[in-house]
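DM from R.C. (forwarded with permission)

"hey, sorry to bug you on a friday — could you get me a structure for this? deadline for the figure draft is monday and I only need the backbone to look sensible"
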Amino acid sequence: MTPFLLIGLGNPGSEYSGNRHNIGFMAVDRIAADYGFSKPAKKFGGSICEGVIGKQKVYAFKPLGYMNTSGGPAAEAARFYKIPPDHIIAIHDELDLPLGKLRVKRGGGNGGHNGLKSLDAHLGKDYLRIRLGIGHPGDKDMVTDYVLSDFRKAEKPMVELMIGEISKHIGLLLQGDEAKFMSKIALATKE
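My reply, with the result:
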């Protein structure tokens, strides 16, 4: 049975840990904790741990270079474990969706997201993306400061709810049921 590679996108370092741009890291950390994955090891230019969800072996990977260099380490991990693009799931922040909303999509454009640009360059575009809404500041000149700022206190409960629901229902994605995964989370996060 081919394992899955779950890639969380973010920036390394404690100063970035609460940033909107790091919601991919947060989601992968939550999944690894909820399913009792192994202790993370530093390998392939990132942090990797492994576990089982349902009957499916999963590697959870966080590239530890900056966002725009995520692809190289992710591709190295995928090659080492012989994981094809259709078994790779990247979790990342999405400006064009409001907080609490998500979309699952295979392939497509990168929407100017440097982490996705790097993944596309190293993995091709046939991997699955979980796009987690973080909202938009309203002005494109404010985007950089916005994504590198922490979630506000009022936003944190929705962030926790969303990543908790992703973790709870990730097994549906591993079984290929993207529609059911999205509807379960939409139901849980609707206000």
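R.C.: lifesaver. The chain has a mean pLDDT of 94.
me: no worries. The two ends are 39 Å apart (CA to CA).
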